Amino acid sequence: MNNSLLLNWIKEMAQMCKPEKIVWIDGSREQQAELEKEAISTGELIQLNQEKWPGCLYHRTAVNDVARTENLTFICTRNKEDAGSNNNWMAPEKAYRQAGEYFKGSMQGRTMYVIPFSMGPVGSPFSKIGIELTDSIYVVLNMLIMTRAGSKVLNELGDDGDFTRCLHSKAELDDKKRLILHFPEDNTIWSVNSGYGGNVLLGKKCLSLRIASYLGKHEGWLAEHMLIMGVEDPTGNIDYIAAAFPSACGKTNLAMLVPPESYSARGYKIWTVGDDIAWIRLGDDGRLWAVNPESGFFGVAPGTNSQSNPNALETIRRNTIFTNVLLTDDGSVWWEKGEGPAPLEGTAWDGRRWKWGMTDEDGLPVPGAHPNSRFTAPFKQCPIASPELESPKGVPLSAIIFGGRRSELVPLVFEAFDWNHGVYTGATMSSELTAAQYGKLGKVRHDPMAMMPFCGYNMGDYFRHWLDLGKKIKNPPGIFHVNWFRKDADDKFIWPGFGENLRILDWIIQRAKGRVKAVETPLGYIPEPGGLNLEGLRIDNSGFQALFEIDREKWLGEAADNRRFFSQFGSRLPKELLDECTFLEKRMRSARS
Ligand code: GTP
Ligand code: SPV
Ligand code: MN
Q1: Residues forming the active site
Q2: From the CA of 531, how far away is ligand 3's center (Å)?
Q3: DSSP letters of 77-124?
């Protein structure tokens, strides 16, 4: 190892953090086992019952550290305008100084691990190399699952290769000194005083979305918060789809869906390519191609059961790290809406004794698992893992889907009229907050392309980048919007969701190929009555109406709200998006009269 850029940087960071020693992660099974043993001996990790859960570990984060902290996440560009109103901003000098105070001596008595990792297959021209320095074994073990990590990445980096400099320290886990800082102009990430997933697995949201979106803007590609999946039809043809939903809105579930009986009987098959992040480029053939840069799943545990997501359940049976779920007394794990009967008692995510049926002072059930508790599992263990994960150029996209969690207003599915309208549809996405974010659950917030928390630069420029890309694509994929979460008067989901979502994907693919007619509405194209395969579902005519109802008055209100939202981007907002707003209002008004 003779990369002086790397060696000098490590030396400098070690002088600041003062670790007792430095250990290089080589990616070997032996080193991994040793680290597991050490973390088990200190209580950082708990070994689960190895008969039931071979190779599985359990971890609890601090109770004030259970989801990404967007309010403590900053983009530190020289000019504030370049970070945009979509980001918290701090001047780089101030950010380095303030975090530097927290890093100073933060690793005393601890080991600094050096994790060389590649996002995307090692050696692919599209992959990006990062080096994460961390004082957490939990982070090392997660990164070994989520990324391609170890010596082979150093070989690839060579003596003069550049890399994203990722520095993490748990420090004191003090939430008043917690900072997640991105310096896109320096290709650097600093994260301190947190131990939670998205804040500390720096290859994930920090590198593969915030830094990568910035690189993509400059290099002409897109880094998106999207799942990637293949739908194989009975002839063996596979159509690939990428879909952006906000956190905890169904990406993992859709990516691993099990076809309903009427589809599997005919030979339909699903292939999972990715469940969270897509890097998208224009191919030589004029189509868009997508790569999942990760090599594992960091998925939401609650709600995962053999009905909702049997493929996830199979994926996490071994070699998996569980975070903040309930631990039973016999070394097993459980979560709300999980598999099998609830245990009578156990240790809850916050370390407190938990009994089945416990309620809080408001009489509400006390959950055993945190609603944002997660599993970390290797991609290859997914029974429907696509071999295309290893393909350097990825898979060609037939359709792009945007979607949010909206109990009202938004129909089950509609298709944008063209690329610009599709970009408008993505840019005006809103969704109800979930446990994956701090904030009031259920509050509707704007989340363009599900990237509001993850776009590493001014979102006005990001919209411009999307529009410009559209001009270059000879064969653009169709753009669609879905909403699995519309509710009826009894507060129940109208659409059964999960595996049944294939029925919607089926329509989307048929539309993308120009094989079926649709009904034109002011919002976009929707299925004709009878155009959706609802065989075997209990959805009658009035149910169909309820799923596709478009309330013109409310949509005019939504359009006005979108204008207000757009106004924050000032002169950086592409005029095309305001035009789309005007077109939508016109269509809604003329349909009304
Ligand atoms: P992140 O990992 O945070 O980015 O989340 P994600 O988008 O991958 O979400 P995930 O698939 O883990 O789903 C989150 C929650 O949504 C779970 O509680 C699911 O049970 C629920 N969910 C997923 N798909 C559907 C659906 O089609 N219908 C309904 N009603 N709920 C769903
Ligand atoms: C999300 O919140 O969108 C996640 C989990 O996928 S985390 O890695 O914590 O960001
Ligand atoms: Mn996510």
Answers
A1: 249
A2: 32
A3: -SSHHHH-TTSEE--HHHHHHHHHHHHTTTTTTSEEEEEEEEESSTT-
